[in-house]
Write a structure and sequence with these properties.
Helix content is about 25%, strand content about 40%. It starts with a strand and ends in an 11-residue tail after the last helix. The radius of gyration is 19 Å and the shape is elongated. The chain is α+β, with helices and mostly antiparallel strands and about 110 residues long. It is built from two helices and three strands.
Length: about 110
């Protein structure tokens, strides 16, 4: 079984937008999948996917000042904006990458002289 860690701590902000300051418009996300299967050195298999997600800043309700904002809230905004299908796609791609690390289907060899 794999677990997923969403890191959405890096954001791009408008310095000022309307009456608010530091309004997040883009989230730089990194999702790391970690398997409960370990390699022969005792390390779990992991894979990471990175990307960005634009946020709609046109009609902000319940604005949260940047210094009051939590990482969990930004993760929720990011996932909600992406939608369930895109979140599932990212996590499924991580599963596939981890499966290939555990059970490779290709290898690289060098031909001798």
């Amino acid at each position: 079984m794999n677990t997923y860690e969403w890191n959405c701590k890096t954001v791009d902000c408008y310095v000022a937008s309307g009456n608010q300051s530091n309004v997040i418009h883009t989230v730089h996300w990194r999702v790391t999948g970690t398997s409960d299967t370990e390699d022969d050195q005792g390390n779990p298999y992991t894979s990471t996917i990175i990307g960005t997600q634009a946020l709609d800043t046109e009609n902000i309700t319940n604005f949260i000042d940047f210094d009051q904002l939590t990482h969990a809230e930004v993760v929720t905004w990011t996932k909600d904006t992406m939608g369930t299908d895109r979140v599932t796609e990212i996590e499924t791609n991580l599963d596939s990458a981890i499966d290939l690390l555990i059970t490779p289907t290709t290898t690289t060899l060098e031909v001798g002289d």
